Amino acid sequence: MAHGLQIKDEESGYNKNLFCIPKHYEEDLERVFIPHGLILDRTERLARDIMQDMGNNHIVALCVLKGGYKFFADLLDHIKALNQNGDKSVPITVDFVRIKSYCKDTPTEKISIVGELSTLNGKNVLVVEDIIKTGRTMKALLSKLKDNEPKMVKVVSLLIKRTYRSPGYRPDCKYCIFLLIQNKTSSFHFMPLFINENSCVFQEGQKKLRKNIYKCLKADSQLSPAVTF
């Protein structure tokens, strides 16, 4: 059984004029690598795999803020539909955690994890992330989760970047949408939250993206309380 679609270095992507791109992003983008429809189809299939593996017990879906929120919402919509329309259903609880480790494109020495993890004791936890690069921050989160003794922990990610620089966690590729191979000649920025496509970004667009990410990291916002449906 295949797990994850592999996006290779030699992938040329698609002409951006084939897609509906918001005007305020058009000048910053060069090409589209993963069309939105393909992301949605892969997300729906992944939801089915997750329910087959974890659908016998109460699931706590733990979203890693802020980047993972849009993917998290889409994935949970599919999981909810399967849960409501299947032969059996289980309680699904939604919770959130924030991991702070990047500032101005440079990893800080200390990884800060913000969220109430003590409620996860004895639960089946599904951690949802948008992209795993070196795996350093995910390794830190899983260590914190282990301290709270959950019954089971699975990690799902929209994107997994294959890199030889990884000193930390490398996820099971069963629970990912796409595998990215590190490209040493081009600078790619993947923006599923911003434009619903994964695209190659021009230099000026990269500057805008870094500025927006830095603003998000500096902004203080409260974590939403857990929700059960």
Automatic annotation (TrEMBL):
One of its GO terms (molecular function) is magnesium ion binding. Its cofactor is Mg(2+). SUPFAM superfamilies: PRTase-like (SSF53271). GO terms for biological process: GMP salvage; guanine salvage; hypoxanthine metabolic process; IMP salvage; purine ribonucleoside salvage. This is Hypoxanthine-guanine phosphoribosyltransferase. One of its GO terms (cellular component) is cytosol. It is found in: Cytoplasm. Its EC number is 2.4.2.8. It catalyses: GMP + diphosphate = guanine + 5-phospho-alpha-D-ribose 1-diphosphate; IMP + diphosphate = hypoxanthine + 5-phospho-alpha-D-ribose 1-diphosphate. InterPro entries: HGPRT, PRTase-like, PRTase_dom. It comes from Cairina moschata (Muscovy duck). Its main location: cytoplasm. It is an enzyme of class 2 (transferase).
